[in-house]
Amino acid sequence: MANDTLPSIAILGAGSMGGAILQGLVRSGQASQVTVTNRTSAKAAALSELTGVTSLSLEADPTANVTAAASADVILVGVKPVLVPELLREIAPVLRPGTVLVSLAAGVTIDTFEEIVGEGIAVLRSMPNTPAVVGKAVTGVSAGPSASSAEAALVRRLFETCGAVIELPEAQIDALSTISGSGPAYVFLLIEDLTEAARGKGFSDADARLMAEQTFIGAAALLAATGEDPAELRRRVTSPKGTTERAIAVLQGAHLDGVFAEATDAALARAKEMAAGA
């Protein structure tokens, strides 16, 4: 096996997030063997077309999760949080010592995983985001006490096939989810609203969408290319007594900083509710 090739991987529940990670893995060319599961045969069939992917459905085989878990060195758990304990109890008997178990589920603690699967299984908790599909994710990773530094490094390398990785204590994972986890939705909402503003000024739907979307894409590319602080780049666009300065004054007058703080606080409160089973 080549040094840059990852060990065998299973993604149990390759829905929105698990599917995004799968796409990133396939794009990277570093996954030697990936087995994924879905509830329906239709979803499984769509993923089976990806190179190097074995796709199983619970509809066709109720034991698909067990089959996938038994064959993998690294297992990503991507089912809905409420389904995680049941899934872990189902696969626990087939997990081999040295298996690395990675949670993609919001609100499910490392303790919950370790209590069910027992000793000898390294557990890590992750919080990716959907730009993994295009290799531009931000993924937070927290290693449990059962995970060695080598196992943590392996999981980091896995997620680096899909973008950037931040290693952090588990106590911060929910806070990270309110920024990068939910963050793409905030950006898409801003694009929606800017597009609507363009429509209101008489532009066609196509031109309004092009202006709004390409402005965000171009600004992000400029930020990445220059490495400058966003505030500095904003200042360069904002000429004294110009049109942009007037627009920025309106946005700042709406206290966007407070709005984002309130929004991410609300997301964090919900994450804590989910962790408590609410």
TrEMBL record:
The keyword Iron does not apply. HAMAP family: P5C_reductase (MF_01925). Its EC number is 1.5.1.2. Keywords: Amino-acid biosynthesis, Cytoplasm, NADP, Oxidoreductase, Proline biosynthesis. Pathway: Amino-acid biosynthesis; L-proline biosynthesis; L-proline from L-glutamate 5-semialdehyde: step 1/1. It is found in: Cytoplasm. GO terms for molecular function: pyrroline-5-carboxylate reductase activity. It holds the Pfam family P5CR_dimer. PROSITE patterns: P5CR. Its main location: cytoplasm. It catalyses: L-proline + NAD(+) = (S)-1-pyrroline-5-carboxylate + NADH + 2 H(+); L-proline + NADP(+) = (S)-1-pyrroline-5-carboxylate + NADPH + 2 H(+). This is Pyrroline-5-carboxylate reductase. InterPro entries: 6-PGluconate_DH-like_C_sf, NAD(P)-bd_dom_sf, P5C_Rdtase_cat_N, P5CR-like_CS, P5CR_dimer, Pyrroline-COOH_reductase. Residues 9-107 form the Pyrroline-5-carboxylate reductase catalytic N-terminal domain. Residues 170-274 form the Pyrroline-5-carboxylate reductase dimerisation domain.
